[in-house]
Amino acid sequence: MTRRALITGITGQDGSYLAELLLDKGYEVYGIVRRASTPSDERISHLGDRIELLVGDLSDESSLLQCLEDAQPDEVYNLAAQSFVGDSWRQPIYTGDVDGLGVTRLLNAIRRVRPRARFYQASTSEMFGGTNEAPQRETTPFHPRSPYGVAKAYGHYITLNYRESFGMHASNGILFNHESPRRGLEFVTRKITDGVARIKQGVARELRLGNLDAKRDWGFAGDYVEGMWLMLQQDEPGDYVLATGETHTVREFCEFAFGHVGLDYEQYVVVDERFFRPAEVELLLGDPSKAKAELGWEPKTSLRELVEMMVDADMERVRRELALTSA
Amino acid sequence: MAPRALIAGIAGQDGTYLTELLAGKGYEVVGLLGPHPGDFSVWAARYGDQVRGAQGDLSDPESLTRALRLAKPDEVYNLAGFSSVGASWQQPVLSAEVNAVGALRLLEAVREAAPEARFVQASSADIFGQAEDVPQNEETPIRPRSPYAVAKAFAHFTAQSFREGYGMHASNAILYSHESPRRAPGFVTRKIAEGAARAKLGRIDELRLGNLDAARDWGFAGDYVEALWRMTRVDQSGDYVIATGVRHTVRDFCAAAFGHVGLDWQDYVVVDTEFLRPADPAVLVGDASKARRVLGWEPSVDFAQIVAMMVEAHLERLSR
Q1: Which of A65, A120, B276, B286 has CB 3.0 to 4.6 Å from A77, enough for a Cys bridge?
Q2: CA pair distance A227, A174, nearest whole angstrom
Q3: pLDDT (tens digit, 9 = 90+) per residue, A214-268?
């Protein structure tokens, strides 16, 4: 029988890659979307009618019940979130409601409608924030340093509680940064590759960034959604770190990105303190050895390949935009 | 000028003890109150103008900002919340709405309307869940094991992130169980103390309880509010375990309570599996040495005294 999956956040970077992966594996794919005045479906428009979109919102439990009734899923992936760390300082309550309490609402709805469905919660390395332990693994204590990290820690713990107390097949994927050409422009990686494309094509002269020494463990989103799926194929649910196990600075990311189009980042990048976060996280470096041992999962894409993929995509997109405006 | 404090949760056990403490120190105290403060207004009347209410609720950010502008507090204490671990399994979203997002709304309102005020969050030992470290201290990993505890962890982390992100003077009091004659019905200690009093008066012949082996570190609420106040008196804000460091089981509590009135608990107590919680947290016992060192705080009332105090209070109330 065809398996059915329900994805919240299907219009996001991870949702769109996961939808592609599941379609390739023969799943029927349902996605939950919020009814918004401006549709934000550019990442999934190429999937057309191969996926079924349902209207729902993590802040409204009754809408989630209805989505579960309609989709009758075997697997539920909770990828929806207010996912900008910086914005979470400006919208902490909204972030807490959606990224935190939204998980409880979804788990409650699954318990009522599809108690045997398997559940994936998108946890994040931001829960580690100011931890003293590096690299971070599944047992590392949390010390979130932003309203986003706090809300995600809540979602992680509540998932664990529903697993332990109700025997649900509910897993947390603790994902370190994962990027792609579909990353939102608000994220630093995409901001850099977009900036490189604009500078290279003469429509921008500088790129303003925050802390260049911030270090991150960056992988490719397409690799990471495979890990999510693998977690739900195990007999037992669990928590897994998905990471590359390597860190690079924002400065290195700039070097690779500018270097790929033959430019020197130092001539274009301007450090702007407005982009510094109120509390910067310490060294985030993931140890994915549990995922490797139990899921057989490994990242396949190197940082240089990732940066080049992103720069190439932005070069192409900026070229098309310029062609349109000059036509 | 008199120092001023705003208390969310002023009408609860801890709120009333803290109000007494602060009023005794000459503070003006403003309590956040819902639309029907009832008993609290009667209770607070003894303090005249020194203790006032302001309409406000943790679910309504506007009301918090308004209350803070009115009170202009030097200190803000968040003692409000949904306090039942058991009920949080039935109403996990509501419990988080108040205990998690409510604390965040109050911190946001303080940041906006009283940014210099010193903030104390009533955190809970429950955030440690099935801790591997015994006793627990401020460095013990947070592993909450109930929707109540998960919401409390959210509030705890939020106070930390406002301290680190905005430099606010925001402290977490990681409170272990603390009891008193004012403990609300529904808590096991209240149930036992009241049960022993009723048994003494010949009004019941059995008392149904859950897991008798559950162990807790029980202190006296009057001592614990003293620690909350001391957290606002030190230059640096921080997290503090507030505990006695001594662990007793529910069985010990029964023996002490019934023994206090000359009865044998085993003649009355019946174990009822209906009261067993899912994932009952293991052994929680706190190491309060940081509070002793930095705040100069120590508990003054021991286990036997707390039990006796509670049984006496219920005997007196029930005999009236």
Answers
A1: A120
A2: 10
A3: 889 999 999 999 999 999 999 999 999 999 999 999 999 999 999 999 999 999 9
